[in-house]
Amino acid sequence: MARKHEQERNDAIKKMIIDAALQICLEDGYKEVTVRRIGDKIGYSTGVIYYHFKDKQDIMDCLDQRLDEETYSTVTNLITPDMSLKDCLFTLYEYTCDLAYNNTEAYKRIFVSSRIEGNEYTRNMWLRMITESLNNAADRGEISSYDLETKAKCILSYIMGYNLLFFEINRTDKETAMKDRCTAVNVILNGILNV
Protein backbone atom coordinates (compact mmCIF):
# COMPACT_ATOMS: atom_id res chain seq x y z
CA MET A 1 0.00 0.00 0.00
CA ALA A 2 2.86 2.38 0.84
CA ARG A 3 4.43 1.81 -2.58
CA LYS A 4 1.16 2.54 -4.34
CA HIS A 5 0.80 5.78 -2.38
CA GLU A 6 4.42 6.72 -3.16
CA GLN A 7 3.87 6.01 -6.88
CA GLU A 8 0.69 8.14 -6.91
CA ARG A 9 2.58 10.97 -5.20
CA ASN A 10 5.47 10.69 -7.71
CA ASP A 11 3.03 10.69 -10.62
CA ALA A 12 1.29 13.77 -9.19
CA ILE A 13 4.61 15.62 -8.83
CA LYS A 14 5.64 14.69 -12.39
CA LYS A 15 2.32 15.97 -13.70
CA MET A 16 2.76 19.19 -11.73
CA ILE A 17 6.23 19.67 -13.25
CA ILE A 18 4.98 19.08 -16.79
CA ASP A 19 1.97 21.37 -16.22
CA ALA A 20 4.28 24.13 -14.98
CA ALA A 21 6.59 23.68 -17.98
CA LEU A 22 3.60 23.95 -20.32
CA GLN A 23 2.31 27.06 -18.57
CA ILE A 24 5.70 28.78 -18.82
CA CYS A 25 6.02 27.67 -22.44
CA LEU A 26 2.60 29.08 -23.35
CA GLU A 27 3.08 32.33 -21.43
CA ASP A 28 6.70 33.14 -22.25
CA GLY A 29 7.92 30.69 -24.89
CA TYR A 30 10.06 27.57 -24.84
CA LYS A 31 13.33 29.41 -24.24
CA GLU A 32 12.04 30.71 -20.91
CA VAL A 33 11.40 27.24 -19.50
CA THR A 34 14.09 26.41 -16.95
CA VAL A 35 14.23 23.86 -14.15
CA ARG A 36 14.57 26.73 -11.67
CA ARG A 37 11.46 28.52 -13.01
CA ILE A 38 9.49 25.29 -12.90
CA GLY A 39 10.57 24.78 -9.28
CA ASP A 40 9.61 28.35 -8.36
CA LYS A 41 6.21 27.92 -10.00
CA ILE A 42 5.33 24.72 -8.14
CA GLY A 43 7.14 25.44 -4.89
CA TYR A 44 9.67 22.61 -5.10
CA SER A 45 13.46 22.68 -5.18
CA THR A 46 15.35 21.86 -8.35
CA GLY A 47 16.56 18.72 -6.54
CA VAL A 48 12.99 17.38 -6.44
CA ILE A 49 12.60 18.08 -10.15
CA TYR A 50 15.91 16.35 -10.96
CA TYR A 51 14.73 13.37 -8.91
CA HIS A 52 11.85 12.92 -11.39
CA PHE A 53 13.51 14.11 -14.62
CA LYS A 54 17.13 13.97 -15.69
CA ASP A 55 17.11 17.45 -17.28
CA LYS A 56 15.01 20.11 -19.01
CA GLN A 57 15.01 18.12 -22.26
CA ASP A 58 13.51 15.12 -20.45
CA ILE A 59 10.72 17.38 -19.15
CA MET A 60 10.11 18.84 -22.60
CA ASP A 61 10.05 15.37 -24.19
CA CYS A 62 7.32 14.34 -21.72
CA LEU A 63 5.48 17.59 -22.42
CA ASP A 64 5.71 16.98 -26.17
CA GLN A 65 4.36 13.46 -25.78
CA ARG A 66 1.45 14.74 -23.71
CA LEU A 67 0.68 17.46 -26.29
CA ASP A 68 0.84 14.84 -29.05
CA GLU A 69 -1.56 12.54 -27.24
CA GLU A 70 -4.01 15.33 -26.39
CA THR A 71 -3.93 16.65 -29.96
CA TYR A 72 -4.30 13.18 -31.43
CA SER A 73 -7.23 12.46 -29.11
CA THR A 74 -8.93 15.75 -30.01
CA VAL A 75 -8.48 15.22 -33.75
CA THR A 76 -9.62 11.60 -33.69
CA ASN A 77 -12.75 12.72 -31.82
CA LEU A 78 -13.41 15.35 -34.49
CA ILE A 79 -12.93 12.94 -37.38
CA THR A 80 -15.53 10.19 -37.50
CA PRO A 81 -15.31 7.03 -39.65
CA ASP A 82 -18.35 8.05 -41.68
CA MET A 83 -16.94 11.46 -42.71
CA SER A 84 -15.91 11.93 -46.31
CA LEU A 85 -12.18 12.22 -46.92
CA LYS A 86 -12.69 15.85 -47.94
CA ASP A 87 -14.45 16.61 -44.64
CA CYS A 88 -11.70 14.79 -42.73
CA LEU A 89 -9.02 16.89 -44.40
CA PHE A 90 -10.99 20.12 -43.86
CA THR A 91 -11.37 19.23 -40.19
CA LEU A 92 -7.67 18.46 -39.85
CA TYR A 93 -6.66 21.75 -41.49
CA GLU A 94 -9.18 23.72 -39.46
CA TYR A 95 -7.88 22.19 -36.25
CA THR A 96 -4.24 22.93 -37.06
CA CYS A 97 -5.14 26.45 -38.17
CA ASP A 98 -7.05 27.14 -34.94
CA LEU A 99 -4.18 25.73 -32.90
CA ALA A 100 -1.64 27.85 -34.78
CA TYR A 101 -3.55 31.05 -34.03
CA ASN A 102 -4.98 30.31 -30.59
CA ASN A 103 -2.21 28.28 -28.96
CA THR A 104 0.91 29.10 -30.98
CA GLU A 105 3.50 27.64 -28.63
CA ALA A 106 1.66 24.31 -28.34
CA TYR A 107 1.23 24.30 -32.13
CA LYS A 108 4.96 24.82 -32.62
CA ARG A 109 5.83 22.10 -30.11
CA ILE A 110 3.62 19.66 -32.04
CA PHE A 111 4.04 20.59 -35.69
CA VAL A 112 7.60 21.80 -36.10
CA SER A 113 8.63 19.73 -39.10
CA SER A 114 11.99 18.64 -37.67
CA ARG A 115 10.21 17.34 -34.58
CA ILE A 116 7.73 15.23 -36.55
CA GLU A 117 10.49 14.09 -38.88
CA GLY A 118 12.79 13.08 -36.05
CA ASN A 119 10.20 11.72 -33.64
CA GLU A 120 8.94 8.28 -34.63
CA TYR A 121 6.27 8.31 -31.91
CA THR A 122 4.74 11.55 -33.20
CA ARG A 123 5.06 10.66 -36.86
CA ASN A 124 3.48 7.22 -36.41
CA MET A 125 0.61 8.70 -34.40
CA TRP A 126 -0.30 11.11 -37.20
CA LEU A 127 0.29 8.57 -39.95
CA ARG A 128 -1.98 6.09 -38.16
CA MET A 129 -4.79 8.66 -37.94
CA ILE A 130 -4.45 9.73 -41.60
CA THR A 131 -4.17 6.13 -42.81
CA GLU A 132 -7.33 5.22 -40.90
CA SER A 133 -9.20 8.07 -42.62
CA LEU A 134 -7.88 6.89 -45.99
CA ASN A 135 -8.92 3.30 -45.22
CA ASN A 136 -12.43 4.49 -44.38
CA ALA A 137 -12.56 6.49 -47.63
CA ALA A 138 -11.33 3.44 -49.61
CA ASP A 139 -13.97 1.25 -47.93
CA ARG A 140 -16.64 3.73 -49.06
CA GLY A 141 -15.22 3.74 -52.61
CA GLU A 142 -14.11 7.40 -52.49
CA ILE A 143 -10.51 6.54 -53.36
CA SER A 144 -8.54 3.55 -54.53
CA SER A 145 -7.00 1.40 -51.83
CA TYR A 146 -3.70 1.41 -53.69
CA ASP A 147 -0.71 2.28 -51.43
CA LEU A 148 -2.61 4.07 -48.66
CA GLU A 149 0.47 4.23 -46.45
CA THR A 150 2.39 6.28 -49.03
CA LYS A 151 -0.63 8.50 -49.54
CA ALA A 152 -0.80 9.10 -45.78
CA LYS A 153 2.89 10.10 -45.74
CA CYS A 154 2.27 12.53 -48.61
CA ILE A 155 -0.70 14.09 -46.79
CA LEU A 156 1.31 14.50 -43.58
CA SER A 157 4.18 16.06 -45.54
CA TYR A 158 1.76 18.41 -47.28
CA ILE A 159 0.17 19.43 -43.97
CA MET A 160 3.58 20.15 -42.46
CA GLY A 161 4.69 22.13 -45.52
CA TYR A 162 1.41 24.05 -45.68
CA ASN A 163 1.62 24.91 -42.01
CA LEU A 164 5.24 25.99 -42.31
CA LEU A 165 4.51 28.17 -45.33
CA PHE A 166 1.36 29.87 -44.10
CA PHE A 167 1.89 30.08 -40.35
CA GLU A 168 5.66 30.44 -40.05
CA ILE A 169 7.02 32.04 -43.22
CA ASN A 170 4.18 34.18 -44.60
CA ARG A 171 2.46 34.93 -41.27
CA THR A 172 -0.89 34.66 -43.00
CA ASP A 173 -3.94 35.91 -41.14
CA LYS A 174 -6.41 33.28 -40.00
CA GLU A 175 -9.14 34.23 -42.48
CA THR A 176 -6.77 33.86 -45.45
CA ALA A 177 -5.35 30.61 -44.11
CA MET A 178 -8.86 29.17 -43.74
CA LYS A 179 -9.75 30.29 -47.27
CA ASP A 180 -6.54 28.79 -48.68
CA ARG A 181 -7.35 25.58 -46.82
CA CYS A 182 -9.99 24.81 -49.48
CA THR A 183 -7.35 24.96 -52.21
CA ALA A 184 -4.97 22.81 -50.16
CA VAL A 185 -7.59 20.12 -49.59
CA ASN A 186 -8.56 20.13 -53.28
CA VAL A 187 -4.91 19.76 -54.33
CA ILE A 188 -4.50 16.78 -51.99
CA LEU A 189 -7.75 15.16 -53.13
CA ASN A 190 -6.94 15.64 -56.82
CA GLY A 191 -3.57 14.01 -56.26
CA ILE A 192 -5.05 11.06 -54.36
CA LEU A 193 -7.89 10.53 -56.82
CA ASN A 194 -5.47 10.52 -59.77
CA VAL A 195 -3.14 7.89 -58.29
Please give the domain count. 2
Radius of gyration: 19 Å
Mean pLDDT: 82
Uncertain segments are none
User: What would CATH call the class of the largest domain?
Assistant: Mainly Alpha
Supply the helix-strand structural class: mainly alpha
The biggest beta sheet, please? none
* CATH architectural group of the largest domain: Orthogonal Bundle
Total beta strands: 0
Helix content: over 70%
Q: State the separation between the terminal residues, measured CA to CA.
A: 59 Å
- What do we call the CATH homologous superfamily of the largest domain? Tetracycline Repressor, domain 2
- CATH fold-level topology of the largest domain: Tetracycline Repressor, domain 2
Order of secondary-structure elements: HHHHHHHHHH
Q: What sort of overall outline do the alpha carbons produce when their principal axes are compared?
A: elongated
Number of helices: 10
Q: In what range is the share of β-strand residues?
A: under 5%
